[in-house]
Sequence to fold (263 residues):
Amino acid sequence: MNMDYQTLSISIADKLATVTLNRPDVRNAFNEQTINELTLAFNELGRDDVVRAIVLAANGPAFCAGADLNWMKKMAGYTHAENHADAMQLAQMLRAIYLCAKPVVAKVQGDCYAGGMGLVAACDIAVAVEEANFCLSEAKLGLIPATISPYVIKAMGENAARRYFLTAERFSAREAHRIGFVHETVGADALDTKVNEIVKALLTNSPNAVKEAKVLVREVVNQPVSDALLADTALRIAQIRASEQGREGVQSFLEKRKPNWLN
Fold:
């Protein structure tokens, strides 16, 4: 694992990787370097056989304030081609998180604005402290949340996106939970415990089944219930039943013992 990161801190222990946004002085706002480092980190961790789950966390009072102001000033002088290339870097970073072969849990310990909401939405599971605020603030600046929209709309739904993309209102963690953007809200003193519970559940399951279940959700959502979909899902279960971990999981259950991936 490449540990030469300037804007992140990364630790791996007990099959869990923790990727921590580490620019608290700018509320973990991201710039080109953060984007490149997140892309590299999630690509590397996705390939690391030691890692079974990833937590995306942040240092300081805020989770992520979106784009760094100095980076935005620089972008103001970009040509159209430079702006497009820059936006593509952000798009590829979000996709690296979304398509990561390992399950990713967002641990939102503070406010989460604009592009920070894209980071959370690209994760599989999100837990936020009750005190956190959320905001898709782009319209206030004459912008739109375009690059993050595929993930944010999936997470909060079309109806909520129509409101918050247009109004740029700030909303609470309770509202984020109500609209489905985050899965759980907890008091600040319970955040570590709740995230650890979720990670423990992930690590208890078959690594291959978790990986394939993540792909399953992504590829089945919004598909019509057609003959092709029936054939596809039947093939998926047939293949995983015949897989090494599929056979081991059923056998260990029948024999009332732990499966070998817990050893």
Summary: The radius of gyration is 19 Å. Residues 65 and 113 are 5 Å apart (CA to CA). The chain has a mean pLDDT of 94.
